[in-house]
Specification:
The chain is about 45% helix and about 10% strand. The chain has six helices and two strands; from the N terminus they run E-H-H-E-H-H-H-H. It has a two-stranded antiparallel sheet with strand order 1-2. It starts with 12 loop residues before the first strand and ends in a 15-residue tail after the last helix.
Length: about 100
């Protein structure tokens, strides 16, 4: 199965919760999202997953990036995806914290 963000096939995939698990106990999160919505995941390769968490806080992810189209549409994510797409499956870039 390929990474749902970059489409590379081969690297091991990780589960990315669209609503970060640390936000699940938050009263606002409980009010705004059903249990099913809070537990939705997408499958990402480690470089894409790490990049997302380097770019956004957990609060930003819960508030603004609750789906694959929102994540893929962000300019910095799109630039990273375009770059990583051509790399081999085992490639592990260094990710800088940008928050």
């Amino acid at each position: 199965m390929p990474c749902e963000l970059c489409g590379r096939d081969g690297p091991p995939l990780t589960r990315h919760h669209l609503i970060p698990k640390t936000r699940h106990p938050n009263p606002r999160t409980k009010r705004d999202f059903s249990r099913e919505e809070r537990h939705q995941v997408i499958w990402l390769c480690r470089p894409c997953h790490s990049q997302i968490h380097a770019l956004f806080t957990e609060k930003e992810l819960a508030r603004d990036f609750r789906g694959l189209p929102e994540l893929a549409g962000h300019p910095e994510v799109a630039r990273f995806v375009e770059w990583i797409r051509g790399k081999p499956a085992g490639f592990q870039p260094a990710v800088k914290q940008q928050r």
